[in-house]
Amino acid sequence: MAAAVSGSSCVASASRKVGSFLFKSVIIGQAATDSHIMESQRPAKLEFAVQMTCESCAHQVRAALEGTPGVKSFSIDVSKEEVLVESALTSAEVQALIESTGRRAVLKGIGGSEQDLGAAVAMLAGVGRIQGVVRFLQLSEGRCLIDGTIDGLEPGPHGLHVHTLGDLTQDCLSCGEHYNPHGRQHGGPGDSERHVGDLGNIVAGPDGRASFRLEDGQLKVWDVIGRSLVVDAGEDDLGRGGHPLSKHTGNSGERLACGIIARSAGLFQNPKQICACDGVTLWEERDRPIAGKGRSKASAETPAAHL
C-alpha cells in the first residue's frame, strides 16, 4: 500500500508487504465479545499483485482459493497480474493461500463493501526480530477493521494499543500515552469506560506469530492517522488487575515494538511498481527488510521482513 505521509515514500511502499511464508497455525487475538470489539467475520476486499504469466498460473491460484472457508469471492486478471479477493480471513491467510501455488503476492490495496471511508497501515519494528504489519479499514461510520500479523513475539498474550503521538525519536518511549480523547480510565476493548486506543490483547503462538482480525466500534481511521501503534511485552489486564497501573496502562509491561499509523491505499489506488527513493521494485522489495542496511542490498545478516 502507498501511505500518503510526506517524506515516507519508502515506508509507504513497504507497507504493501504481508507474510511470505505459509504459517502452520493462526492464533487469533483475544478480544471481548460484545458490540465494541470482536473477532471480525465481516468480509473485506483485498487487492493483490501476483506474479502470473499464463492461464495455468490463474488456474492454480483459482484452485487454491476456490471452496476455502472464509473466501467469499475472487477474480483473477492475468494481464494485470492482479487478484481481487473478498474474504473474512486475515490478509496474511489469503496471501498464504495464493503463495501456496509458488507465486509471490503483494497486497496493494484493501477496501470494504461500502464506499471508501479510509484505510491506514502501521509497520511495526522493535526489540530484536519483532516486526509486523497492522492495517486499519473503516468498514462503516461505526466499525473499524483491524487486520494484522506480528512476528518475533514471546508466545502468549501481548497488549496492543494506539498511542497519542506519532513520534519515534526515542523509539517507542516517545509515542506518548494511550490515545484517550475522552479522558477515561483504561479498560478492555469491550468496555464503555476505556481509552479509544485500548485494543486488548493479541496472542502469539509457539512460533512467535500473532495474526488477528478484529472490529472496533470506537476507533476511527481518520482519528488515528499520524498517531502510533504499540505492542507490549505482557498481557493487558484490561483495567481489572488491581495493580496501580491497571487503570492507566493495563500493566502490560514495556513497549516492545511500534510504528506510525499512515494513510494507505484503498482498492485500485496503488499503481506503484517501484520505490522512487531507492529504486527497489515491487517484487524486489517483497524479499527485502522494511528498512535499514538490508533493504537496498540483500544481506545474509539481515533477514527479510516476510510481511
From TrEMBL:
Native organism taxonomy: Eukaryota, Metazoa, Chordata, Craniata, Vertebrata
Keywords per UniProt: Copper, Disulfide bond, Metal-binding, Zinc
CDD domains per record: Cu-Zn_Superoxide_Dismutase, HMA
Official protein name in the record: Superoxide dismutase copper chaperone
Gene Ontology biological process terms in this record: superoxide metabolic process
Entry's family note: In the C-terminal section; belongs to the Cu-Zn superoxide dismutase family.
HMA domain mapped to chain residues: 43-106
Molecular functions per Gene Ontology: copper ion binding
InterPro entries with a match to the protein in the record: HMA_dom, HMA_dom_sf, SOD-like_Cu/Zn_dom_sf, SOD_Cu/Zn_/chaperone, SOD_Cu/Zn_BS, SOD_Cu_Zn_dom
Pfam family, one: Sod_Cu
Cofactor(s) needed for function: Zn(2+); Cu(2+)
